[in-house]
Structures are given as C-alpha cells and as structure tokens.
Amino acid sequence: MALNPFFLHGSQAEQRLVQELINEQLRMYGIEIYYIPRKIVRRDSILRELQSSKFDDNFALEAYINTYEGHTGAGDILTKFGMSLRDELTVTISKERFEDFISPFLESMDQEEINITDRPREGDIIYFPLGQRLFEVKFVEHESPFYQLGKTYVYELKCELFEYEDEMGGWDNTNTTTEEIDSLLVNQGYITNLYLYPTGIAATATATIGSGYVQKIFLNNDGYGYTSTPVVSISTSPSGGTNATAVAITTSIGGVDSIKEILLINAGSGYTEAPTISISGGGGTGAAATCGIITDKKGITRISVNGSGGVGYSTVPNVSITLPPLSPQISPQFKAVVSAAGTISEIRIVDAGAGYLSTPTVTVAVGSTVGFGTFWLNEVVTGSISGATARVKTWTESTSILKVGTTKGDFVPGDIIVGSSSYARYSLSGITSERFEDKYEQNDVIEEAADIILDFSEANPFGNY
Amino acid sequence: MLGTYYYHEIIRKTIISFGTLFNQIYIKHKDGDGDVYSDFRVPLAYGPTQKFLARLEQQADLNKPVQITLPRMSFEMTSISYDSSRKTGVTQSFKSVGDDGKLKKVFMPVPYNIGFELSILSKLNDDALQIVEQILPYFQPSFNITVNLVDSIGEKKDIPVVLDNISFQDDYEGDFSTRRSLIYTLQFTAKTYLFGPIAENTEGLIRKVIVDTYTDTNVATAKREMRYTAVPDPIDAGPSDDFGFSEEWEFFGDSKSYSPTQQSDI
Q1: Cα B218–B223–B229 angle (5° rounding)?
Q2: How close is the nearest chain B Cα to the Cα of A123, in Å?
C-alpha cells in the first residue's frame, strides 16, 4: 500500500463541506448570470461545423467574476472589418449547482440538439448582466483549483464576447430567452426596415373629357374558346382625333371560355361615325361587338390613375365621379383594376357618360385593408404576395416601422405583413435596404456612387443594374 | 513646374468601381430540414477609416453586447504602380468635347495598376465558401468594368480587374485562449489610367468646314467661284464616334464674296 492509511485526502463529509462553503460564497459574492445553452440545428459533417444554432433557453446561475478588475483580452480594436470588441471574461460557477440545477433540464431536451448535459459546454453563452453583454464560452477549466481534498468543486468558464450571425432568430414562436436578453439583439445583426401603412391610402385619378368619343361597347356575341385575353381593335379616329382602345375581359362558365365584357381604356375623340370593333386572338372565335359614339356632348374619354395608385386594396373599390350637369345627362360608369401589390393600376370605362362642360372630379374609395395589432418580438411575419418571411426585432406603432431580421426572400411593396402569433397585419409600403445596425455596411453607398460612373449598359453580374 | 491643379478623382472612382463588384453577394442559412430560413446580403465596406469615426459609428453603444456581426467583407487599396506594358507615347493627345460643348485637348492617359485586397471574415467555413464561389467564376482571371474616369470629357475606359491571388487563413489549431479565425483574402489588380491636366479650349468643336475657291490669287478683288462644304454625318457626332461626312459642292456666278465676320455672302 503506497499511502498512509491513517491520513485521508478529504473525506466525503469534508468534500461536502467545501462544496457547501463554495456554493455559499458564490451566492454571496457572485453575480447572477444567465447560462444559455447552444442547441444544434444543422451540422455539416464534412466541414465539421455547426452551420445553424439556436439559443432559446436560459438558466439563472450565480457566478464569481475571476477577472474582477475588468475585462481581459485585447479590448476594443479597429480592424479592417470594423470595430471588434475583444473583451474576455472568466467566471467561476459551482460544479454541484450546475449538475443539480441545469443538467436535469438539459437532459430533458432533445438530445440531438444537446449532446452533452453534465457539464458546461464550450460554445454556450453567458449573459453578463453588469455590462449587458453576451459572452461565448471558449474553454471550460474543470481542474482549477486542483483536487483540493481529492475533488474539484467549480468550473472556470473562460469566455469571449459572442460573434453574432443570425443565431438568435428564435426558431419557434417563443422568445429566445428573456426580454432582457432579447432586447440586446434587436439592434444587432442583419436588419430590414419595413415601412407599414396602418390604414389603406386612397388612390387618386384624373378624368379627361372630350367629344366624338365611344360611349360604350356592346358585346353582341360573347364567342367561345377564349382561353386567353383576345386583342380588341377599334378603327382609328379621323385625323386630329384620338384613337379609342379597349380590353376584353374573359370568363369561364360551365367549362366554356367566352368574353364577359369589353371595357374602354380610352374612349377616344374626334370620331364622326361609330368605329368598327374587331376581336382577334385569345384562342377563341365568334365574338362580335359594336359601339355607340356621342358627338354633340362631352363625356369621359379617359381616367388616369395618379402616382402609385394608393395602398392597401384587396378588393375592387368604388369609383365615383361628379355627375354631368347638362341634361339629358348620362352618368358614367367605371371599373378599377387592383394590382397584385394592392394598388389601383388602371380605371376602365364601362360607360363614358355624356353632358360634361368641364373636367369632373374622380374619387376612388379608400383601400379596404386596415392595419391592426401589435407585432411580437421574435415572431415570424410573412408577406402575403412575396411569401418572404422574417423574425420581428422591433415594432414601433407610432411610426409604423417594423424591424425584422433572419429574413428569407424579399418583401415587396403591397405585401400584407401578417404576424404568425400576434396576427397583427399591416400593408407594406416600402423597404429600406437591408443593413447592419452597426453602420459598418456600405453596400448601398458604394452601389449608388458606382451607378454614376460605371457603364453597365450590357449587364452587371454583381449588381442590380 | 507641376503646379497645375486638377483632380479627376480617378483613383477614388477606381475604388468605387472595384467595391461595387462585390456589393450583391448573398449567403443563405438552412435549418435542420435543409430549408432556407435566412438569406441576406453580405455587408461590404472600404476597410480604412478614421478611428474615432469607426468608434462613434460602430460602437455608439459602449456596451455593445456582441463582439462583431459576421460574415462581412472588407476591401482596400494596397498599391499603386506604373504599368510600363501599357505605355503610350507621351506626346500623343486626343480631343474631346465636354458637357459644355467646348473642345478639350487631352494627353493620353498614363497606365497605372492599382492593387486591391478583398477580405472575407466569417464564422463558418460554409459561409466563406458561399461567398468565394459567387466571386471566383467571374474572373478568368480578369473581369472588365467600364468606368467614366473623367467626367468632363466623358471618357469611358475598360478597366480589367485581374484576380491575382487567393489565400485563406483558418486558425483552428492551438489552445482555447483564442477562437477560430477564418479569413479569405483575394488580391486583385485594377488596370486603370490616370489623366493629367486637361487643356480647355475656348472654341467649340468645328462641325462645319467651308472652303471657297477663287479664280485669282488676289482675294481682295477676286470673287469666289466654287464652295466646298463638309459636315460630319450625323451632325452631332463627337470626335470619338464613328461618323462619315456629307460633302457639298456649289458653284457661283453672282460675284459675291464670303464674309467670315457676317457669316454670309456679301
């Protein structure tokens, strides 16, 4: 026997006492940190790296700051990649407290995501509340102090500030950790500003009046077999007039494709006799139409949509117009066309009316989409048209600006942005370029400057223009 | 002796032109099922900056919660050198018409090579590879960009950007006091041209030539008999355009002379 059997290098009772004393000291002189375990989402088995991780749990734990005089490490340095904060931190936590308090929770999690549960792990995150910063565990020292009374009692966690990518995106509809920690990251990472409309904005339009115009097109025969939109040709106006143009609207009833109606885009002017109308193409045959003209009164020859055509239209709005003053008056009728972006793209003339002396006022009803609700932090929002998705970073109701991260796809103006958990929904009016909140990124600045001096008349494989 | 002030911002324009090549690089991240859950444009910036400005802009919050946001790209100019292989005659010049319609005399530009370095910092090798693969195939080994180097003469030059070298640093070995550092560095040469001062002529571009011929050498008494007129076709062609001439011959028996001051026959 090599050792003297009359001397013990620590009995279990002594070891227990030391552990209790350490636990007590840590709870008196330590600080409360949050231990945030890394969960594996996607691992590249060839390159041997975790391509995606998530951090959606946290555990409060007492820890003693070894580096109590301040952060160690290289400090804040300027690199070619901008500011890099190389602060480091070393904290000591109780081995027993980790095993009793955190390990059981880790064991209850999906073991595909958590591969080690009985000790602190490199790659996990420590939330340091004094500086409100996130530190990544670089190394877990388990033998310091070295086997006092035959056992180790603490873990020493050597940490460095976290290198952020898009890990804190959530991955489910719960907040990542706590509001305190989540709020740290709302201004970090890749952020897209979505400008939302709280309510729809009415489109505006301007009417043009004239005489010698096509008042209405009469569909005498709706034909059959029109699987696509046929071309409507109207004979030209005499010299000095404006040619009328029209578009056919097809329909399918009982499996028969036919023309539903023909609407005027421009009623023309200067016609002295009714023009002929021919319908061609569209795969069908048999359709025929005639029209009537008005030469002695003025009617609506065209309705032009101003600007972008409003915002937030999901159904066809009512278009009203000042009635003609002359008697006998014929009230005009219109049909608005709603684009996929939720705007009014065109207003077509059903009946050009008659009896105007001056240009009447056109009123388009406001869009039916009204924004409502409050987006929740970290919930997924989806664009109704684009199908793009993102995670909510912040929502400012007063300015209607929604900041999102972890974007997939490109949102487009006209999207109805819907929150998956809050069910808040607003119409999207515009998007600022994606950017990093820390002002490092210059992509747009460089592109705008290059736009002036570069000749990409053929193509720019690297850019948008 | 060298004190004629001019500044065409050619090197600055070359920096911009080089930088914009890489401002639309995207990376995508996938979840456990292989579905893309995040795609974003990789931030790019010109590396050198004022230290105080970087601190104020990028670390306005002194307690920034994270070290850095990755991945990101940086580029910077690393060298300027004369390229003797593209040397042209020092006395050669050409004429150009500026936006103001005035004729300008320009000496042939001087060929210079500007070295650039594009650096890619990423946390994951996969991120870096996504970025690098979106760049490399365009360079065989050069990619031409057409740059309006001198605005006042509208001189567009094709500038080949040559990919000279690719290197990467993956510090994954060693103790755990440092984290893995993954940096790809691509070195390029932009073959640009530097223009000297541009002599501005007060006269406009001659767009019409009229030559009168006389039957006598005494032009004080002789009357023009025949007139040759030549104008470029099209009339608004510039010196650098591909154009022809319209010629006209006129014969006169009216005993008039052309007055250059009145610009008419008198």
Answers
A1: 110
A2: 10
Whether B38 sits inside 8 A of A166 (CB atoms) is yes
* Angle at the Cα of A335 from the Cα atoms of A329 and A336, rounded to 5 degrees: 130
Residue A188 sits at the chain B interface (C-beta within 8 Å): yes
Cis peptide before B109 (omega within 30 of 0): no
Q: In what order do the strands lie in the sheet with B209-214?
A: B209-214, B224-233, B244-251
Percent of chain B clearing pLDDT 70 (strictly above):
94
Q: Test A80 with B17 for CB contact under 8 angstroms.
A: no
Give the least confident one: A70-74, A424-428, B245-249. A424-428
ipTM of the prediction: 0.79
- Cα separations in angstroms, B232 against B49, B106, B208: 50, 22, 7
A82 touches chain B (CB under 8 A): yes
Whole-angstrom Cα distance, residue B146 to residue B160? 9
Which residue of B21, B55, B121 is in closest CB contact with A83? B55
Please give the helix or strand (H or E) that residue A450 lies within, else none.
helix A443-453
Contact between A404 and A194 (Cβ < 8 Å): yes
Asked if pLDDT for residue B261 goes beyond 80, the answer is: no
Q: Which string of b and e fits A331-364 if b means at least 16 CB within 10 Å?
A: ebbbebbbeebbbbebbbbbbbbbbbeeebebbb
* B58 lies within 8 A of chain A by CB: yes
Q: Does residue B118 belong to the interface with chain A, where contact is any CB pair within 8 Å? A: no
How far is residue B197's CA from residue B210's CA, in Å, rounded to a whole number?
A: 32
A443-453 and B10-20 are packed helices; what angle lies between their axes, rounded to 10 degrees? Answer: 120
- Give the pLDDT confidence of A11-56 residue by residue, as tens digits: 899 999 999 999 999 999 999 999 999 999 899 999 999 988 888 8
Residue A156 in contact with residue A66, Cβ under 8 Å? yes
Tokens 């008697």 label which residue?
A: A327
A150 Rama class: left (phi>0) / alpha (psi -120 to 50) / beta: left
Please give the torsion angle defined by the CA atoms of residues A391, A397, A399 and A401, in that order, rounded to the nearest 10 degrees: 10
Distance between CA atoms of B42 and A164, rounded to whole angstroms? 14
B181–chain A Cβ distance below 8 A for any pair? no
Residues A93-127, buried b or exposed e (16+ Cβ, 10 A)?
A: bbbebbeeebbeebeeeeeebbeebeebbbebbbb
Q: Could you tell me the CA-to-CA distances from A333 to A302, A320, A337, A354, B233 in Å, in that order?
A: 12, 8, 14, 11, 54
Q: β-pairing, B72-82 with A285-294? A: unpaired
* Adjacent-strand bridge partners of B45: B74
Reply yes or no on whether the pLDDT at A456 is more than 70.
no
* Residue A341: predicted pLDDT: 72
- Among all residues of chain A, which has the CA nearest to that of B37? A408
